[in-house]
Design brief:
By secondary structure, the protein is mainly β. The protein contains 6 helices and 25 strands.
């Protein structure tokens, strides 16, 4: 205000002070983010996470936006902060962007587009056959020459698998049975099947299994095969619960179908007589077609555990003492952001995990489950984890200040809380390393766990 002469007052110098006003421009900063594919198509169903940082440490006040529709994300910002932005989508590798709002002299809008790289489609999930007492399990690769009973070398993988089960369940007693098709004389078929069952038992005895734990029985042609779901999927001319009797087979329309049905009758099986109430046999199923993969996992690898990891032993090299050393450069896993990239691995940390998928099995709603992911830095430079990102249902325990020297082993502990869950899921845990690849993006390692929700 002012009462000086020459002001705006039209009365006198002592009447009516002049009032002056002005506006101070409000300084603001905001962020606009777009999610796109590498082909520059808008990517819906993703999320963007904004994390404020001070002295390279994340501080409270972050914001995460998820969108089922649209690919634009808008954030208001505070001044004088560093920020880390993470663009994410369930089917794509996350990416990061760093910027700051320091020293702004005028309002500013920062824009950034993420062009996310698609993840390779994961291998089909494992499916498990549960074998109960008196339920036969076909050893599909017990092969014999025509009209002979000597074990062929090609049969040994299935026999090694059975041997592993017998060692894993020392109380288990089994019946080994051999079956023929109905072609030929019944008496001859019975004798031939008995010789083949005896050969199977003899191989197991020679490889350390106690004779008293096995009974060998030849059934000849007397127990035709009953078609289960797996066989029905493989052979479209058969249906579940069909019994492959001679009458049934001879009524099939083509000679090829008849021979396939006779082949299914020529089999060696085992069933549990005493011991465990059930065991689990893993097999790999194509979830889209329902077919079992031809390249099934090696039955000798960890038989009967009921869990298969999606990372092969060649990649992770597991021993009882932990993760053994692997050659350099190692085979990178598809869940690593370095997979398929033309990178100089000599200058990057490389984390090899003992498993990247943990199957928690059935989880009752409200139950919590703990997991441990163990890894080794097989790279030639130190590794430091900057950020571990997971859903709200997952609590992760890890000291992000720790540096892992080459060959050093570490672990990441996680706890899953199913309280807010309403369906079965596979959940990702994203691990961002402080070290960056050739694009200036932090190296990302992805872990997963799955569960089947039980009300």
């Amino acid at each position: 205000t002012s009462n000086r002469e020459g002001g705006r007052s039209i009365k006198s110098r002592t009447c009516c002070d002049d009032i002056y006003t002005f506006e101070i421009a409000r300084l603001y900063a905001d962020l606009v983010v777009g999610l796109f594919t590498e082909d520059r198509e808008g990517l819906v169903g993703g999320s963007v996470q904004l994390e404020p940082m001070v002295n390279n440490e994340i501080v409270p006040g972050g914001d995460t936006q998820n969108k089922d529709q649209g690919n634009r994300y808008d954030f208001g910002l505070e001044l004088e902060y560093d920020y880390m932005v993470i663009g994410d989508h369930p089917d794509y590798y996350p990416d990061t962007f760093f910027f700051n709002t320091k020293g702004l002299e005028e309002s500013a809008t920062t824009t950034h587009r993420f062009y996310l790289r698609a993840k390779p489609k994961p291998p089909p999930e494992p499916e498990f056959d549960t074998i109960y007492p008196r339920e036969p399990f076909v050893l599909e690769n017990i092969l014999f020459e025509f009209d002979k009973s000597e074990i062929l070398p090609e049969s040994e993988p299935d026999l090694e698998y059975l041997k592993g089960l017998m060692e894993q369940y020392p109380e288990m007693v089994i019946e080994l049975s051999s079956h023929t098709d109905p072609q030929g004389q019944p008496s001859y078929n019975q004798r031939l099947s008995q010789r083949r069952a005896n050969s199977t038992k003899r191989w197991l005895i020679q490889n350390g299994i106690d004779n008293d734990r096995m009974t060998a029985v030849g059934y000849g042609e007397t127990v035709p095969k009953a078609v289960n779901e797996l066989i029905a999927r493989r052979y479209d001319f058969l249906e579940v619960n069909d019994v492959l009797t001679e009458e049934f087979i001879e009524a099939l329309p083509t000679e090829e179908q008849k021979e396939q049905a006779y082949f299914l009758n020529r089999r060696t099986e085992f069933q549990i007589l005493e011991g465990p109430t059930y065991i689990v046999k893993p097999r790999i199923i194509n979830r889209e077609t329902g077919e079992e993969l031809e390249e099934a996992p090696d039955r000798n690898a960890n038989p009967g555990t009921g869990m298969i990891d999606d990372q092969s032993e060649r990649e992770i090299g597991i021993e009882q003492s932990g993760i053994r050393q692997v050659s350099f450069p190692p085979d990178l896993h598809p869940q690593s952001s370095l997979y398929g990239r033309d990178e100089n691995l000599e200058e990057l940390p490389l984390l090899i995990f003992d498993q990247r998928l943990i199957d928690l099995g059935e989880v009752t709603k409200g139950e919590t489950r703990e997991m441990v992911f163990t890894f080794r830095n097989v790279g030639k430079v130190p590794a430091k984890i900057m950020l571990i990102q997971a859903c709200e249902c997952t609590t992760v325990d890890h000291n992000n200040t720790r540096v892992y020297q080459p060959h050093e082993v570490g672990e990441i502990r996680a706890v899953f809380d199913s309280t807010e869950k309403d369906e079965s899921e596979t959940i990702s845990i994203d691990i961002f390393l402080e070290q960056e690849d050739s694009r200036g993006t932090p190296v990302l390692e992805e872990l997963r766990y799955s569960y089947e929700l039980k009300e």
